[in-house]
């Protein structure tokens, strides 16, 4: 996206995704660097490492629950859905009690279904939530995104409206990892020889994760072409943790249905499987 798309007739993901001047989602405006600087510390290698061990423990609990319940299971519902929600909420500073509400808002925002205005309503409600949260953290010294934004607002480096817009964008993008990892595990589960190699050669997993994430299409619609200028640290961390936990913790993990029976999500701006039925 760029400033040139504002108020012009161009292909968009959905009608409501038209851009207004000054929107934080426009990456080639000068202010974008200033906004990113306010939260950069949370997304550096050090910032992501801050939540790695907590993320590993949350993931272990989810995998243990799935195994205890016994096969078959929906990998998306049991692990790939709740895990990214927990991680992005941890990074953002959203309390655990509010995770489900964030998940509901995000799915409504990402829906490409026209009419009803549910997406716009969800965006407003999420914005109001972050406005309150950032206001409470103003002047604080925490390392989560809400605290960093609160501190930046207190120093008058960003406005509250800018901080809220950026928080909503980061929260929604963070949960999209659910579908990214769903596509990654679809590849692994439909290529059991690759999964077995990664079980036997754990030293190649980081490189394999990079390669698995690289070619997977992120969105169904056109009009949001992006080129990564640097590594997306949280996505890589979550993918690496998921590969370790599921390949090592669930020996024999495999699809419980033919690959052609796996349906991909419709009516959403992010492409991913609706469900991944598995057994072991």
Short précis:
The chain is mainly alpha-helical. Helices cover 58% and strands 2% of the residues.
| Elements, N to C (H/E) | HHEHHHHHHHHHHEE
Question: What is the mean pLDDT?
Answer: 85
Note the total helix count.
12
Give the % helix.
55-70%
Instruction: Tell me the strand percentage band.
Output: under 5%
Radius of gyration: 19 Å
Structure in words:
There is one protein chain. This protein is mostly helical and 280 residues long. It has helices spanning 31-43, 45-69, 75-80, 82-92, 99-110, 118-137, 145-154, 160-175, 177-190, 192-200, 205-213, 233-249, and strands at residues 73-74, 254-255, 277-279. It has a three-stranded antiparallel β-sheet. The chain is globular, with a radius of gyration of 19 Å. The termini are far apart. Mean pLDDT is 85; it is low at 218-231.
Outline the fold blueprint.
Layout: H1 31-43, H2 45-69, E1 73-74, H3 75-80, H4 82-92, H5 99-110, H6 118-137, H7 145-154, H8 160-175, H9 177-190, H10 192-200, H11 205-213, H12 233-249, E2 254-255, E3 277-279
